[in-house]
Amino acid sequence: MKKLNLRDIRKSKQKNLQVLTCYDFQTAILLNQTDLDMILVGDSLGNVMLGYETTIEVSLTEMEIFAGAVRRGAPDKFLIVDMPFGSYSTIPQGIHSATKLFQKTRAEAVKLEGAFPYQLKLIERLTQTGIPVMGHIGLTPQSVHQLGGYFTHGKNESSAERLMKEAKALEAAGVFSLVLEMVDENVATEISKSLSIPTIGIGSGKKTDGQVLVINDLLKLGPNMPPKFCTPVADLFETKKELINQYLVDQRK
Ligand code: KIV
Predict the structure, then answer these.
(1) Which CATH class, in words, describes the domain spanning 6-218?
(2) Is the dihedral of CA 140, 145, 150, 152 positive or negative?
(3) Residue 212 near ligand 1, beta carbon < 6 Å
(4) Rg, C-alpha atoms of the chain
């Protein structure tokens, strides 16, 4: 499959773009050999790779290390890297962090959460300097304490209106694509219809222009049940445990 570029992605409305997260070299090699459209090195690596309670603990250095590994394993995929919490609290800091992340990891784009006025300005500046940005609204896990937990957004009129406004402002600021996380399905559908850039949903129904999942949820790599919106295709946690236990039995025979 041909590696997508920014122009391809911008034109991919209603094309059901498929995105998975990835955090390590060998899984990246595997994904590089599939038909996946894009890889996201999400700051969810804090939860699934590092055992942090929230993504707030993830550092820029950690993002650089994991994204570098994924880049080396998946040279043929459009790669997006999350800007971690605290790395874009001001515009100058955001420009500095994004430039470092973009240069060091050789990703094709960065992603940041939110649509406050300073973030819109930051996105404008980054895109002007040649760093493509993916937006992310709805449930933005880096703001979990400010939001008061993990829940579906857009369930009432004012929340739905705010999301629509944010989506349009982000498009105007220059994002090439927008993640809608845990957004009410009808609102996500309306936003997707209103934008000319592709929306990528997670827990936001089926009518966005694409879907993103955390690979650890899809393959059930961990002991916990994935979120309700993700139906795992395997239970690799149990499978691997059984294989190792069988190996140990065989060794001790
Ligand atoms: O960090 C992440 O994995 C993400 C996706 C859930 C969109 O931001």
Answers:
(1) alpha beta
(2) negative
(3) yes
(4) 18
As a whole number, the mean pLDDT across the chain is: 98
Which residue's CA is the nearest one to ligand 1's atom 5?
A: 42
Q: What is the mean pLDDT of residues 22-30?
A: 98
Q: What is the pLDDT of residues 146-182, one digit of tens each?
A: 999 999 999 999 999 999 999 999 999 999 999 999 9
Task: Find, among 212, 245, 246, the residue nearest to 229 by Cα.
Answer: 212
CA distance 39 to 23: 9
Closest CA to 122 of 102, 85, 94, 145: 94
The amino acid at residue 22 is: C
> Which one is catalytic: 113, 171, 181, 190?
181
- Decide if 171 is catalytic: no
Is a pLDDT exceeding 90 seen at residue 88?
A: yes
Domain spans in the chain, listed from the N-terminal domain onward: 6-218
Percent of the chain whose pLDDT exceeds 90: 100
Ligand 1 atom showing the smallest separation from residue 21 Cα: 3
pLDDT at 1 over 90: no
Decide: pTM greater than 0.85: yes
Which amino acid, 93? Q
